[in-house]
Amino acid sequence: MRMRKKKNLDSRLEECKEYLIETNFEERDYNKAIEEKELLDYEAIFGNNNPVQMEIGCGKGQFIFEKAKLNPDINFIAIEKTKNVIVQAMEKAKREELKNVRFLAIGAEYLERFIPENSVELIYLNFSCPFPKERYARHRLTHSYFLDIYRRVLTEKGEIHQKTDNRDLFDFAVGEVE
Q1: Which of 9, 99, 124, 148 is least surrounded by Cβ atoms within 10 Å, i.e. has the fewest?
Q2: What pLDDT score was predicted for residue 1?
Q3: pLDDT value of position 145
């Protein structure tokens, strides 16, 4: 089922634009898109040089809000493909005046265009879409293709934390990590 476009999406995004890391690229072929880098300057974005953690597939942002409130000395980047989904999270971040959370509306395959190598200490994958049909396995956020991307953006001792309620996805992820 396709999500309907939120009413007044553009004006709602404009009202909380300080929480959105703007991306301006049109290239749909991600291999070509990541050739040109627009690496984020965390200190300019957050106003500090605190460690960075990331949630990929943040949805409406409940998890990232709790982490940000409990850890004010950590900067969080929440990734979600569509602005239509993260607008509610951005509005909540503004209401709560969270200074250590920013949002990036991209697919995980574009991470290397924006995220500097060895700069993220922890990646959260919470209840990602399991893409149950085997022919879509490559779309799973725990596929070896994505794990290679995460390896490049994670610090040397960086970690990936995954939560899932899908046993098949869990088994797939274990197999990919091995």
Answers
A1: 148
A2: 42
A3: 85
